Amino acid sequence: MDALTIAAVSGIQSRMESLDLLANNLANTATSGYKSDQEFYGLFRSDVASGAGDDAASTMPVIERQWTDFSQGTMEVTGSSLDVALNGNGFFVVKGPSGPLYTRNGSLRVLGSHQLATADGYPLQTAGGGTISVTSGQPIEIATDGTVTQEGQTLGQLQVVDFASTSSLAKMGNTCFRNTDSRNAPAPAANVKVEQGKIEGSNVPVAQAAMRLVGVMRQFEMLQKAIGVSSDMDTKSIQEVARVGS
User: Fold this and answer.
1) How far is CA 161 from the centre of its chain?
2) Bridge partner residues of 129 (DSSP)
3) Which of 33, 171, 189, 199 is in Cβ range 3.0-4.6 Å of 175 for a Cys bridge?
4) What angle separates helix 3-27 from helix 206-245, to the nearest 10 degrees?
5) Domain boundaries, the chain
6) What is the pTM of this model?
7) Which residues contact 99 (CB under 8 A, 6 or more apart)?
């Protein structure tokens, strides 16, 4: 495979990964608490892709890793007592299938077990490590510090934590994260308020993502044409060699 084709294939692969990220971002523009994914490009060195008689290795673009934008989304007023939003840095702690998970999706519901949980069905964890049980059909009040009360009785305080670095947070589904580094332990969040009757919208910049999607698709088409050109050049070279030999 010649250098042009190898470089084009590498470019197509990175653009396909970009398309996946962009498509997922656009599909979740209405998902509460969703954090958009971005790509970080690097250059891959390849001796195989170097040209004939060229000792220098060629470099090709690849997506080195993806990263998540944790900036706060727009606050949307819903008026529902089961909607809460975090104003500031931090995450709600929920009990996941294999341990604690962290989310900013405050669209809550009451499970059949009467536990207060996220829309994904994960019970919210209290500052003491337990869960909150509520009476179905009765209004609840959630204070700015996360304290939950119902009919004048305190039921518990939502645990809200933050991390020194969000680089160790990996997505589990669309709105939950797990911590992949035990050294980056969560700590109680500071300067954050729990606001009831509001929800945090997705932080996907829709117009920018749509424009980026169009641009990546055009790049994809150009790289496909480059592969076609390379194939045509190889075919013509073989034909010319055949003519000389005859």
Assistant:
1) 19
2) none
3) 33
4) 160
5) 3-70+204-245, 75-200
6) 0.76
7) 178
